[in-house]
Specification:
Blueprint: H1 2-5, H2 19-22, H3 37-52, H4 66-73, H5 77-89, H6 95-100, E1 102-109, E2 120-127, E3 130-133, E4 143-145, H7 146-154, E5 158-160, E6 164-170, E7 172-173, E8 180-181, E9 185-187, E10 193-194, H8 201-204, E11 221-233, E12 236-244, E13 252-256, E14 259-261, H9 266-279, E15 280-287
Parallel strand pairs: 3-6, 4-9
Antiparallel strand pairs: 1-2, 1-5, 6-15, 7-8, 10-11, 11-12, 11-15, 12-13, 13-14
Amino acid sequence: MAYTWSSQAGITSRSLIRIDTLGLIAPQYRDRQQQDAQELLLALLDGLHDDLNLVVDAAPSAPLSPRAEAAQERLPEVIAADLEWTRYRERNDSVIVDFFQGQLRNRMECLHCQQVLYTTSTTFSPLQTLSLSLPAPTAQQKTVSLAHCIDEFLQEEIMHGNNACIIHLKRFAYTSFPPTKVSTRVTFPLHGLELGHLLPPMALASPSPYSLNLPHEPRTRYELYAACCHLGEDGSGHYTALVRRPDALSAFVLIDDEQVDPLSSPAAQAAALRGAEETAYLLFYRIQRD
């Protein structure tokens, strides 16, 4: 790993993660066929979580009774979310949860029960990657912003942030066969991705009126630290990665199989980031450093 970031990095044959090792927990990776990067990432994170989970042989979570569910529905949303997160953490306690997981709230409301006092049904689920649909490019709109994609996904939903935020851009449309690649250009910020407006206001109060276990984070500005890009079409293609150097906050390197390009000139880096707007498949954000 240190060699990858060194100024001498060029071509290296060092394998950081052996695919055949991952195949022990995910059989689909036992051969060396091309795989989807997002699916491989989830399999890797799930496998690491299972191995690192400090809770051993946890009993399955008992569903809430109708009475308890109705009582929870009447609570302030941030308190209900905190209760659900606490229940989840009772069975899931690992560094993967600490760094990569958050919580997504989904609320359904009956539009035909206006006279009933409680007409909503709220569920909370763990969030590991944020999968965003992309509009097909048109003559009028060939570029969209990452913020627009997030707004389209969330609408009335509320996302609770964490130290890292992994965003999955849905580059493949399965509305026809064979699937088609969506090459819409997505502009994404390198710094200052704002997610604070997605959090419940009570979660950001300082001091908070409640003692919360939620993975909420008052510092909700994120910076890009890596992008996984897909070149080619569905069923055939190639992955590359742009990764921020740990020793230079504004510099990225381009990793293409064994080739590590330090992108030593500003023009080379700008060109690589510009190209990633059409090919980015996974975006890795972290809490922005001050």
